[in-house]
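Quick one: structure tokens for this chain, please?
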Amino acid sequence: MTFERIVVDPARMGGLPTIRDTRVTVGMVLGQLAAGRTTDEVVADYPYLDRDDVLAALEYAAAAVNEREVPVARPA
């Protein structure tokens, strides 16, 4: 799955996923929404974002929690 609005750059915000070319992380957006803020309030807080950016953060988070990592057996 490709996320055109989400960027992971090791040189920006410690490699955390960010929205486009900003320093706003997906986690920052999710934290705002989890605290009860609306999409419109998040966009008002970060005027360089738009509604599609907030929705892209949600889509990215949904995909991330559906990722499965197969544990590797530990040596005995």
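The chain has one domain: 6-65.
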